């Protein structure tokens, strides 16, 4: 249920944040939008004027990361092998979020190191803090120029950028001590081919996502996700040192619940039906809807745990769903929400359907979401953010 | 003397290559041109249509690097401490040159590793080649996006970009095994302040460089160069592992010879006098000439050796001057040369003097250089490229 407190203005719903954030943090990773940044400039639908959610929700999990480092990361052992501690943020994008998160992690590691050293050598205050080196990773198409010119001047680490897909190797063997990845892993590396195969039971006709689709469609998405995660975990298993930690934050879902019961699923369904309505009216072709799918998958904690256990190289320190929008108050403001969605996602739709029909699409979407606003409000504080902490065995 | 062989067409002179190459390779490093790329596009004066010298002269020193690695780099010792060999190219710019050089170095290191391993363990063919990680460094303002999207697909190394000045720390302590830097170190980090101080004997009135200037001006440049090199060597001393190798290629000059005796010096003098002529005719202000200086310094091998010895952390394996343009044949084609100079350097002049006077400046420059073409031709095969190989003690 939406909270009754009206002091704050509720702009959106909890798990819609994930899709917006996902696009924000990892637009370069979107296979269907690989060269489509968010709306630029400062206009009505620009991302810069419509990223309030993203700012507000950034850092929801930061306290948990600090807690995990404090309680479970053995800085003394890590720094005994190397005098450099190496961190990686996978899917860093260009923004300030990665710098804030990295700063949080580095400071937590420094505190842990100091506390461990003072326990073992209480009279040795001269012990030298290890140096930190941070690798900011995203696809080659990411705007690293903006990332590099935005680096904090007073950072306590040496910085490097690493271009490439995190589904493959990025770093030397046993060289990384801490991996962070936020709102990236729910983007599939590619769309399952059968989604567009008319002869397949997984043909995803008339929909843009697996929400409300037959099991075969959901299964095709799940298989691709499992394959992507397998490659991701294999690469990280090589790169992380023993006892190295990996924090993964992404969209999740409680086990067994259909995605259509969540606001993001409602959004996808409403986009699908808006597009199908437009097809019926001849504004677009029905085949265009059939051939468009969003490469986005939300896993349950149990599903993710199964994939990690199958890989076998990592211990699971923490795996849980949280409400990413506990800070939000009041009912959803649908027009504002759609403006946010448009700022983040218009590019991928306009490339496929053409920019001329975007006003039409987002106008219809607003009406459809307004029609189901009670349903959205009743589900907008679900726990749909997966927070996982793994440790290299 | 210019060689008589007329089979090849000589477009320019040997050490002019250095200034053109210098700008090409390290434009981001130019303090006076930090945001001034070479002329873009495909027009008459574009860099892309006027970079023949650069292509031809790239790789002049590559054979020497291979020789140094083969004869002096102990890959067995380096790889016994770490299973990752880390390389850095400082001042990499965006182009293909850095990839070609790095490829050459990695392959030479792999050959050396194999030969050392086969000598010590002739029957152990399964010995695992170390992984290579390459750090491409340039200033934050460098176009890393172009660099990253141009990375060779079939590279045998993991790649990272490192933004920042090489006059400070870039990498963790004792983490780098090989440093390469080409056509970067002759650019000063800043211009000596006294060059613009009317009360100073180092006031560089009416000139754009220390060529043909009083000793005080030369001394001011030399002091800044020594200070820059001190910071550079201090940082590299921290970062290189013991026995790690550093190859430095830059413009040089034989000890005791005035810069005005070299084609690049003649170019600078001709630019100075062209500008002063324009000032006298009221086309520009004389004060504009006084306040413009090129932050470019050519050191002699003896001078560089002195700086390295004062630092004390490196052994000198090789320090020599070479002719960077042994491939060039025939007399200098002055108009073509000026077009090349313009493509590489127009930005820094137009920012200071305005784009409206560029045709005038480069037209006058062409005439002045044509007047002294015999002199240019008689000196254009001087050894003005400094090749230095250091090893961390």
From TrEMBL, chains A, B:
GO biological process: methylation
A GO term for molecular function: metal ion binding
Record keywords, A-Z: Magnesium, Metal-binding, Methyltransferase, Transferase
Xref: Pfam families: Methyltransf_7 (PF03492)
SUPFAM superfamilies tied to this protein: S-adenosyl-L-methionine-dependent methyltransferases (SSF53335)
Domain of life: Eukaryota
Protein name, as recorded: Probable S-adenosylmethionine-dependent methyltransferase At5g38100
Organism: Prunus avium (Cherry)
Gene label: LOC110762711
